[in-house]
Structure formats: C-alpha cells, structure tokens
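Bit of a strange request maybe. I'm writing a small parser for structure token strings and I need a real example to test against, not something I typed by hand. Could someone generate the tokens for this chain?
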Amino acid sequence: MLSLNSKINQKVLNLLFLNEDKKFYVNEIAKKIKEDSSNVHKKLLELKKEGILSDQSKKKERYFFLNKEYPFFEEYKKIILQSFSPESKLKQDFEGLDGLESLYIFGSYVEQGKGDLQVLTVGSHSEEDVSKKLLALQEEMGVEITHARVVELDQEDPDLKEVFSKKHIQVF
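Reply from user aminoacidic:
Good idea to test on real output. This should exercise your parser:
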C-alpha cells in the first residue's frame, strides 16, 4: 500500500499530479521540492515499486512520471490534490498576512485540475511579501504562478467582472 506519511512522497506526488503529463529526472524533482536528491531517488524507487510511478531512461538521465494505469490512480490523485493542493498551500502560507483580505485563484489549474495558477490578492498587503511567497510556492510545486493585486474589489471594474465570470476558487 502506498504510504503518504513521508513528506518526500507527498511533495513528489503533488508535483507529479500537478504536472501529470510531464516527465522529471531525479535532480529536477529534488530541486523543485527542495529535498536531498539521494532521499528523493530512494522514494522514487519505492513509488515505482508500488506501481504509481514509471520510469524511462534517455541518454544518461532517468525520468520518472505517473503511471496512469495504476489501479488507484484517480483515488490517489484526488487525495493528493485535495490534501496538498495549491489552495491548501496558499491558505497556509498567506492567511494572516498583514493587510491581505482575500485571495482567489484562476487559470488552467482551476479549470482542468492541473497547470498554471493565476492568483488575485485583495488588500493593502506588501507586494514584496506576496511575491516572495509565490515564487517559493511556484518553485516547490513546479507550476507557473502569475499574480495580480487590487486594494479593494470593485464589482463594476470590467477587468474584475471578466475575471470573476470564469471559474475561480476563493481560498479565503
């Protein structure tokens, strides 16, 4: 049975489920999730043995990717993306940030469950603090994150009307 107790397993699976059509080599994964490459390699081999990952060698690199034929693929995808999702990470990292009133996400992640994130923050918070946190999250998750900030939500603003007419998630 696949163990989700390991932080490295959680980070690896979150990265791969958010980028489920991509293949990553060991050092690339280690860098993105900020873990030691030998520990990551060990966990990748365990996940491959379990069957949720497959691998492929190209030249001198060994690439790992999700095995979509794994019997419990959809169940684990749902668990990982709900438990370690961008929403939960954003809420954890940003809730309580001085001056930040609310945070919304848009983009292909919201539309399709994978891909890039567009983040809208509302409030008088520090742009620098938000940018630093989003950059770290972008590196950890391996997804592109774009950001826009407004001081207050103006329901009559045509740009905001367009944004909110699309599928979105209010994180808080």
